[in-house]
Prior knowledge:
The protein is mostly helical and 268 residues long. It contains 13 helices and no strands. The chain is 76% helix and 0% strand.
Amino acid sequence: MKKRAAAPYILLMAAFIIVPLLMVAYFAFTGSSGGFTLQNLADVSQYNNIFYRSIKLAVISTVICLAIAYPLSMILARIDSRYQGIILMVVMLPMWMNLLLMTYAWITILQKNGVINSILGLFGLGPYKLLNTQGAIVLGMVYNYLPFMILPIYNSLTKIDASITEAAQDLGCNSVKAFLRVIFPLSIPGVMSGITMVFVPAISTFIISRMLGGGSNILIGDLIEMQFLGNAYNPYLGAAISLILMIIVLIIMTLLSRFDTDDDRVLM
């Protein structure tokens, strides 16, 4: 009975996950003539600088999201339960809005005659070039992906029994030691989930980098889009780049899973 109930989900996974992955792998090892080749993978090496830039900006964005999300999640987990629902709705509100619209909003804010430069102009500063920079890309990533870091960390913190922290304080731990030895280790599963949920879309984004970074800050997502939809149409090279990106993401997720411990192991 359970096998029959799981059959639709298995079919959906096969149709929308496994089959597309197999198609990417097939085109990555196929030449324009239809024969097997490794040239596509060899050609990926000419874009090492783009891979480096994408990983760097994704890591920076993830670290900033973590630095902002953790204290916010702690505050949210400790406030009165009557207000948690309202604040959670505010946190989740950007997730319900169109990514393109939010990115357009940042263009109007960051451009030379935008809101920020207008305010700085009142103090005799600027105008500064804020748009079409790597900083603008990081800002767009942090703004769009921050809720994906807050929610899993908040979920982990709410599961920590207050009596555990009280017991640590009764045994001589001050607030800092209780956080470092009890609260943070128990919240690591949420931290790792948040890092994964932010890093993966950040490293593969193309809308944010194209609109806020300009043509001089191409990321992996832009490069893949160019191979499939641009003038330099080359789906075989695009598939090879996609395959390398998937391998990088899988390696990083595997490394992150080593830090993901359950509560029992942490307490021991």
